[in-house]
Amino acid sequence: MSDIVTFGETMLRLTPPGDERLENAGEFEVRAAGAESNAAIAADRLGATATWVSKVPDSPLGRRVVNELRGHGIETDVVWSQQGRQGTYYHERAGSPRGTNVIYDRGNTAISSAEAREFDIDQVQNARVFYTTGITPALSSTLRETTASMLKAARQGGTTTAFDFNYRRKLWTPEEARETLTRLFPGIDVLLIAARDARTVLDFEGDPRQLAHQLGSQYDFTTVVVTRGSEGALAWHDNVVHDQAAYETDTVSPIGTGDAFSGAFIARRLHGDDVPKALEYAAATAALKRTIPGDVALLTKDEVDAVVADDGTTISR
């Protein structure tokens, strides 16, 4: 039995070397990349056993994804599909003013047809936490129903449900996301959301503290974590807001930072940490991830411990 079970698609990320343009690239660096598997790996590295659940094409590319995730130490429980393809995305790195560009190629993927009945629901119900993100229901109408069913089953089994809102404008509009994701809210215990998404997608107003209070009071969440980029994060729990500053970091790759934060926060709560301490570890893990190429937080708990010990206090009000 795993402490945390995550559900979602993991793609193959293709990145040209250096700041090369995609249209001129002669080679690509290839890595597995997915929000839910990223979070599972971060949680595992912070001391929580993790399993990633998905539907994957029975193809060389599908096996490439699964083998890489297994190499990171997490368990994988996949439905091998004879239909649908392996999702990919292309990542073009660049500084200002060009900026980084991401191009998704994830139409007709194997996971888009995934139904709850295909998975081992006992595994979800025996876990301590079930985790998924707003990316998954954005991929197909089938996955909208599947995500809702998985959350419901987890709740029925007494499993805590955690959900990263994780809005992606290249996948759907704010209106589509709001209509779908708010319907999932009754099945969620712990919500993680960026302040910008609470404003842009949910039409909430106010500073991050006000956003957390509004979300916590309007919906029946146990905990609401609001991230705010370089300003850190805060969490609403038991009607108290705990404020955590961001740690200083030299950014090598920002992609996957939010996933690392989420995985670390959940892992430390499972370990028994209170919300302020879990926030410290999540912020430290996110800072370390920004120093690491790729989407995955390849770090150790000792490294996170060192960052937490060196600096960082959480203010509760």
TrEMBL record:
Signal peptide start and end residues: none
UniProt KW Kinase keyword: yes
Domain Carbohydrate kinase PfkB: 1-295
MF terms (GO), sorted A to Z: kinase activity
Pfam family, one: PfkB
Statement: the UniProt record of this protein carries the keyword Transferase: yes
InterPro entries, per the entry: KDG_KDGal_kin_Halo, PfkB_Carbo_kinase, PfkB_dom, Ribokinase-like
Domain of life (superkingdom): Archaea
Keywords associated with the record: Kinase, Transferase
Alphabetical list of PANTHER family matching this protein: CARBOHYDRATE KINASE PFKB DOMAIN-CONTAINING PROTEIN, HEXOKINASE FAMILY MEMBER
Similarity-based family: Belongs to the carbohydrate kinase PfkB family.
Name under which the protein is recorded: 2-keto-3-deoxygluconate kinase
Organism: Natronorubrum daqingense
Phylogenetic placement of the source organism: Archaea, Methanobacteriati, Methanobacteriota, Stenosarchaea group, Halobacteria
